[in-house]
Design goal:
The chain has 59 residues and is mostly helical. It is built from one helix and no strands.
Length: 59
């Protein structure tokens, strides 16, 4: 097993931080899209119920 130089360790840490940042950004994006879709569906159900349309779950 070879020992990494300080420059190699620094490069590895920089890469790891970039990957972690990209992963966190992706998770936040997926969460945001999910919340927006849930909000849109809740509003659509309220509108359908107000119009007297049946509101049920797809089965």
């Amino acid at each position: 097993m070879t020992r990494l130089t300080p420059e190699q360790l620094q490069a590895r840490n920089k890469r790891n931080r970039a990957i972690a940042g990209a992963l966190v950004a992706f998770i936040v994006l997926v969460f945001g899209v999910t919340v927006l879709n849930l909000k849109r569906n809740i509003e659509a159900r309220k509108e359908a119920a107000a119009e007297g349309q049946p509101v049920g779950y797809a089965g």
